[in-house]
Amino acid sequence: MAGNFKINIDLKQKDRVLEELVAIKELWYVVLSTGGTDVDADFIVPCFEDLNDLIFEKINKIEGIKKIETSLIMQYGKHSFEWGTAID
Fold this sequence. Notes:
Blueprint (H helix, E strand, L loop, with lengths): L1 E8 L4 H9 L4 E6 L6 E6 L3 H12 L5 E8 L16
Antiparallel strand pairs: 1-3, 1-4, 2-3
């Protein structure tokens, strides 16, 4: 199962929070972002039990995490990583 987290953090602790998030093996994409949330993170887990563990035992226990919104991927319309740059 794959999905995305939108995470609000205490920005005064952003460097440490990002370091701890990057260390979580289930998260394969972690970025500091602008907009409604501070961090976007994509995950892959085998089952709901592992998702529960990821949210409540790993991410939520990081000091500086304020709020986590979870979005599950139900169906891919397009899933391609063959992009170039604006210069190409």
